[in-house]
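Project outcomes to date are best conveyed with an example. Our students and postdoctoral researchers have been running inverse folding experiments weekly, and each run begins with a structure described purely in tokens. The record below, which covers 223 residues, was selected by the lab manager from last quarter's runs and is presented without edits.
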């Protein structure tokens, strides 16, 4: 991961299923802030390499599968969550957690980065399964939007095939500020590809963004 950090210089990294040593994500230098929650195996983590960002973990809502925090940088302030939707559980259980997060945010700008374990043509997958249909309907009912753009690449691939189960989701108040979403060409060495995007209003003269995010996905068995 440190090679990716040095190359891309991201402000924020969403990590899913991190390899851990002594209950802490491994392979990350101490200069980076790491956010996790709960005492069991963490399936979600957030890494912040940039010391100019103020971040506050919302401990009363976060757990091993959902790391929820408030982020402030320059004039940008929003909530973000890195979340795992367990394929072994009813997806409605995850909806309850998202509802809790939305209620806390009270309409403020919010970003959700998730391994949804759900497939739908709505987010440019090849099929729609039952979990995907339920997730479609839930997101629409909560006025949430999927940022994923259509691509020749897929977010997930293994020997059994490929799919788009990794989603970047936002609400009405943040959707216009999420830019340049892409599935990276960079080799991730895992079943999941890197997803990159920027958040921030563009400078009309230089076309630069004042805030940049990269999502980094890694599975424990291939770290």
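After processing, the design step wrote out the following sequence:
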């Amino acid at each position: 991961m440190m090679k990716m950090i040095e190359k891309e210089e991201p402000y924020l990294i969403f990590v899913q299923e991190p390899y851990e040593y002594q209950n802490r994500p491994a392979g990350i230098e101490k200069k980076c802030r790491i956010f996790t929650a709960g005492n069991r195996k963490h399936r979600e983590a957030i890494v912040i390499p940039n010391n100019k960002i103020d971040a506050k973990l919302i401990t009363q809502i976060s757990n091993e599968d959902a790391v929820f925090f408030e982020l402030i940088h320059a004039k940008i302030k929003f909530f973000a969550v890195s979340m795992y939707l367990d394929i072994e559980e009813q997806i409605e259980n995850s909806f309850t957690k998202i509802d809790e997060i939305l209620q806390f945010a009270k309409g403020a700008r919010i970003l959700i980065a998730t391994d949804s374990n759900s497939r739908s043509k709505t987010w440019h997958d090849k099929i729609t399964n039952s979990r995907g249909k339920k997730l479609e309907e839930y997101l629409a009912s909560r006025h949430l939007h999927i940022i994923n753009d259509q691509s020749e690449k897929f977010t997930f691939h293994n020997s059994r095939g490929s799919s788009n189960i990794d989603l970047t989701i936002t609400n009405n108040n943040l959707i216009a500020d999420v830019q340049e979403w892409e599935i990276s060409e960079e080799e991730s060495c895992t079943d999941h590809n890197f997803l990159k995007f920027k958040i921030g209003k563009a400078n009309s003269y230089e076309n630069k963004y004042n805030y940049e995010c990269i999502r980094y996905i890694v599975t424990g068995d291939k770290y």
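The domain at 2-222 is CATH 3.60.10.10 (Deoxyribonuclease I; Chain A). The chain has one domain: 2-222. The training component of this project remains on track.
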